[in-house]
Amino acid sequence: MSDFLKTFLRDRFEDEARPRECFGIFGKHPGWDDHIEDLPLPTSSMAMAKQLLYVQGIGSQISSGAWTRLTPETRLANFNHAFLWLRGSQFLVGRMWGSSDGKKRAHFPMVALFHGIALAPAGAVDSMLVRLEKVCADCRAARSAEQVRKVISQVSNAEPVLGGTDGKPSTLEVTRGTIAKLGRDLHGNLPPRCRLGADAADSRRGLRFWSHVCSSLAPVDTPLLFIAAIGEPWIDVLAREPAQGQFFCLRAAPPALPLTYAPELEETAEEIDAQDLVKTALGGKGAPGWSWISRIFGQ
């Protein structure tokens, strides 16, 4: 078993049942002449996420020229993403945006993220993403390293959001065929990376829906990374330990990287509730007319 599977999102704390959050920043900013290296991340999982996502993942795509070989029509203009990395009782929520260093090199992004411990994602993720939008705006406005450090201090010293629900349902317009194909893979062998449809106008909606479905139905303790390109109609899901090449998805738009479960021509999307879907799939009583979901999952 790799170090990632042994330790990622399994950080140990004195009181593991106590809800808490940690905050950190890494990447590029004009206040530094190169990568930010003097702002230590507070948890080992955050440091591992930086290594996998930023150093190895994004770094490999830049060094290989994978994104520059895409046409302008199939390459996202810049980094502009939200992400959620789930495993068991811990998760990371992050915001990534295009940035540059003091020498105006703009290949790498800047990233801000929270590490949630013993928190209910349904009640914390949306709040964290809202706060990360302000962090993004404040860091973009900051012109010095000292100003960025003030942003970090303000967020770190703020009262954490430790629970509750945001009151927003986990629903999404999706086809039955997509659910059927994904359902079989969740019960069998989920691909290392898949691209799923989302709401271009509300990236958090797609994150809520797909994270609830996949984390509920995938094998227990499977690390799942959900990456939403802001303003785009898809979400990428990376399962288990992501390989460097799987981060190609960050800047690749269709048709360079199409939806994994493309709907059939005659299919139409319908509003589906993630909680009903999961309840039915796990053998509970779902909403009326949902017997097709039971058949998909072998109930």
Rounded radius of gyration (Å): 19 Å
Order of helices and strands: HEHEEEHHEHEHEEEHH
Number of strands: 9
Assembly type of the chains comes to single chain
Q: How do the strands of the widest beta sheet line up side by side?
A: 1-4-3-2-7-8-6
Tell me, briefly, the overall form. Answer: globular
Count of individual helical segments: 8
Question: What is the average per-residue confidence, as pLDDT, rounded to a whole number?
Answer: 90
Instruction: Quote the distance from N terminus to C terminus.
Output: 33 Å
The poorly predicted ranges are: none
Largest sheet report = 7 strands, antiparallel
Strand content: 15-25%
Q: What structural class is derived from the secondary structure elements? A: alpha+beta
Helicity, as a percent range:
25-40%
Summarize the structure.
The protein is α+β, with helices and mostly antiparallel strands and 299 residues long. Helix content is 34%, strand content 20%.
What's the structural blueprint in terms of helices and strands?
Blueprint lengths: L2 H5 L12 E8 L16 H21 L15 E8 L2 E9 L10 E9 L3 H21 L3 H13 L13 E4 L1 H12 L5 E5 L5 H15 L6 E6 L4 E6 L30 E4 H8 L9 H6 L3
Antiparallel strand pairs: 1-4, 2-3, 2-7, 3-4, 5-9, 6-8, 7-8
Task: Explain the overall architecture.
By secondary structure, this protein is α+β, with helices and mostly antiparallel strands. It is 34% helix and 20% strand. It is built from 8 helices and 9 strands. It has helices at residues 3-7, 44-64, 121-141, 145-157, 176-187, 203-217, 274-281, 291-296, and strands at residues 20-27, 80-87, 90-98, 109-117, 171-174, 193-197, 224-229, 234-239, 270-273. β7 and β8 (234-239) form a beta hairpin. α3 (121-141) runs antiparallel to α4 and α6 packs parallel to α7. The relative contact order is 0.16.
